[in-house]
Each structure stands twice: as structure tokens, then as C-alpha cells.
């Protein structure tokens, strides 16, 4: 496998696909960090609060790492439109709104965090050095997020019937977003990165690895089948259907609008 | 009220250090204990961290209670 040491060695098509993938990954990590942080004083026990705040910090740190790599690409699509246009954000649809309860946080941890980790593992096994150089530490940190998700799913799945039903409903709500994230058989944006060697797997392989990774974690729950996706309206840059429906508070938070008036931001 | 069992957390930041006690966590399983220890005591770049359930401690010198139970000598 030939190592790609810098962006200039990528074809224009591969570079564009990489820019889109880095945006989707980093925006999803940014939103996941925000959603974890919103619950960092709302967990069932103090240790859970600390874990949520630590995971939030790591997700935001990982988003920053990925955006650093994105910033070196000529196809970096970020511009001022992100301050006003929700459509310029590529985060997964299940994070458009806050977690409504601790079960939502656990399911976001189990499904969305794992989806991201499966992608990063594939990039670590790929040939793009700016990624492979940085991902070992990121993935070491993610190991504990996975243990956290598994332990909580197990605990909730052995809870009262109403809790198990709530858990199953939350999984059923997030699952279609995750399956759709990998895209259709053609034109999915991931196969191009696999062809370039940046990812060790294409879309179908990544989706299979995701299901294989989450399945043991979701033992004891009513995990949905992979399911058919209606690809009408799916965008292979943002890797989702539609435009994010962030509320105004969330959008101001992620764009820094509330603090821009201080004149010290970017 | 604390949920679960008490776990003692030990860690070291250098190979030539001994494992030192850094704190405790309450957890309902060893997996929770691992995660909670890792996220609670992350103030240093530990190279090793372990958790031990307090109940697994084998007493060598037993702590005398501060107040003797009623009726005992």
C-alpha cells in the first residue's frame, strides 16, 4: 500500500470525497460532544456525570483533530455560510435535537459514537498519513466510550419493562440515521475513499463492520434489521437526508454566534 | 445515596513508580468501574490504572472500629 503523505498526492475526486467525509465526521463529533455536555449534570449518578463530561471533551477534541486535517485540503468546504445556513453542517440527523433523557445519551453513545469509531478504525488502516498519524490516540480514547455504552445498554436492558421499551424505541429512532449514513451502493462517497486507499473499507464493508460491532453491545434489545433506506433526498456530501433542524439555541452555540460580539472569536 | 459497590483505583504515571492509590468509584459492575475510574481520575497521563473491588481486599491488619458495638467487651 502506497502511503499518501500530503493532500497534493490525492486525485481531485478523492480529495473532495475526503473533505466531505471529514466534515461529516467532525460535525457529527461536534454535535455528539454538545449533546453529551448537555447531560453532564443530569446522569443517574455522579460518576455518570463525570463520564458524560469526559466523553464530551473527547468528542470535541476529536472534532478539532479532524478539522485540522480538513483545513489542509484545498476542497475544505467550510465558509461563512456555516454561521447562518444549517445546511452547511453535515452532522448525522439523530443529533439535530437534544437528548430527551439518559436513554437517548446511551443510544447515541452506542450507535453514533460506534459509527464514527468504525470509520476511524478504517482510516487508521488506510494510507493517508495525516490521518493515520493522529488516529491512534483518538481510538485509544474511544475504547472507553465503547465500554461505557455497552455497560449502560446492559444495565438499561435488564431494567423494568418500561425502561426496556424506552431503550428499544430510542434504538429504533437512531438506527435508520446510522444505516443511511453509509449511503447507497453507488455514489456513496465512501467507495471513492476506499479506492484511493484512504479507508480500508468501502461503504458496504463499513456498514457491515458497524452492525457487527454494535450487535454484541445491543444484546438483549430489540435491534432493528438493517432495513431498506429510501435514498430520495439523501446527500452524499452531508451523508444524510435533509438539512439539520437545530433549534436556535443549539445553532448559536455551535456557530459561536452568542460570543461573536465579543470580538475575540474567529 | 451511592449506587453499586465501592472500587478502589490505583495508577502510576511512570514505569519505575509503584501503583499508588488515587481514589474510589461507586459502580454497579466492573465495566462501569473501569470507565468511571478512567474518566474521574484523568488528571495525569497514567501508563497503568487498575480497579479493585473493596470487598476483594484481604485484611491483614483489621481496622478497629472507632466505637465498639453495643454489648461487646
The ordered H/E elements of chain B are EEHE
Order of helices and strands of chain A: HHHHHHHEEHH
The percentage helix of chain A is 55-70%
Most extensive chain contact?
A: A-B, 16 and 17 residues
Strand content of chain A: under 5%
Summarize this structure briefly.
The complex is a heterodimer of chains A (266) and B (73). Helices cover 60% and strands 2% of the residues of chain A.
Structural write-up:
The complex is a heterodimer of chains A (266) and B (73). Chain A is mostly helical and 266 residues long. Helices cover 60% and strands 2% of the residues of chain A. A two-stranded antiparallel ribbon of chain A has the order 1-2. In chain A, helix 2 runs antiparallel to helix 4 and helix 3 runs antiparallel to helix 4. Chain A starts with 11 loop residues before the first helix and ends in a 6-residue tail after the last helix. Chain B is of the alpha+beta class and 73 residues long. Chain B has one domain: Ubiquitin-like (UB roll). In chain B, strands 2-1-3 form a three-stranded antiparallel beta sheet, with helices on one face. In chain B, strand 1 and strand 2 form a beta hairpin. The longest helix of chain B has 11 residues. Chain B is extended. The model of chain B has no long low-confidence stretch (mean pLDDT 91). The interface between A and B is medium-sized, with 16 and 17 residues.
Amino acid at each position: 500500500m502506497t502511503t499518501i503523505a500530503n493532500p497534493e498526492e490525492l486525485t481531485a475526486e478523492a480529495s473532495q470525497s475526503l473533505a466531505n467525509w471529514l466534515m461529516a465526521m467532525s460535525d457529527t463529533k461536534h454535535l455528539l460532544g454538545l449533546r453529551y455536555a448537555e447531560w453532564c449534570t443530569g446522569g443517574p449518578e455522579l460518576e455518570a456525570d463525570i463520564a458524560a463530561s469526559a466523553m464530551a471533551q473527547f468528542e470535541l477534541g476529536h472534532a478539532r483533530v479532524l478539522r485540522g486535517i480538513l483545513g489542509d485540503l484545498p476542497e475544505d468546504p467550510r465558509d461563512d455560510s456555516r454561521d447562518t445556513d444549517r445546511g452547511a453542517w453535515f452532522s448525522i440527523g439523530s443529533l439535530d435535537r437534544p437528548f430527551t433523557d439518559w436513554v437517548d445519551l446511551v443510544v447515541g453513545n452506542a450507535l453514533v459514537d460506534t459509527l464514527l469509531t468504525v470509520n476511524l478504525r478504517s482510516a487508521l488502516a488506510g494510507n493517508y498519513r495525516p490521518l493515520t498519524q493522529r488516529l491512534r490516540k483518538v481510538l485509544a480514547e474511544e475504547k472507553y466510550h465503547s465500554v461505557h455504552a455497552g455497560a449502560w445498554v446492559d444495565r438499561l436492558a435488564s431494567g423494568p419493562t418500561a425502561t426496556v421499551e424506552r431503550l428499544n424505541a430510542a434504538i429504533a429512532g437512531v438506527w435508520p440515521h446510522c444505516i443511511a449514513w453509509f449511503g447507497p451502493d453507488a455514489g456513496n462517497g465512501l467507495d471513492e475513499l476506499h479506492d484511493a486507499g484512504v479507508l480500508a473499507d468501502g461503504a458496504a464493508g463499513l456498514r457491515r463492520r458497524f452492525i457487527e460491532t454494535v450487535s454484541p453491545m445491543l444484546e438483549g434489545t430489540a435491534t432493528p434489521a438493517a432495513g431498506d433506506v429510501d435514498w430520495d433526498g439523501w446527500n452524499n456530501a452531508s451523508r444524510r437526508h435533509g438539512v439539520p433542524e437545530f433549534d436556535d439555541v443549539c445553532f448559536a452555540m455551535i456557530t459561536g454566534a452568542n460570543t461573536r460580539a465579543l470580538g475575540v472569536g474567529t | 445515596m451511592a449506587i453499586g459497590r465501592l472500587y478502589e483505583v490505583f495508577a502510576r504515571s511512570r514505569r519505575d513508580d509503584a501503583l499508588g492509590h488515587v481514589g474510589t468509584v461507586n459502580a454497579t459492575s466492573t465495566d462501569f468501574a473501569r470507565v468511571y475510574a478512567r474518566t474521574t481520575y484523568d488528571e495525569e497521563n497514567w501508563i497503568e490504572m487498575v480497579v479493585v473491588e473493596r470487598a476483594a481486599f484481604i485484611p491483614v491488619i483489621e481496622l478497629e472500629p472507632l466505637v465498639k458495638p453495643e454489648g461487646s467487651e
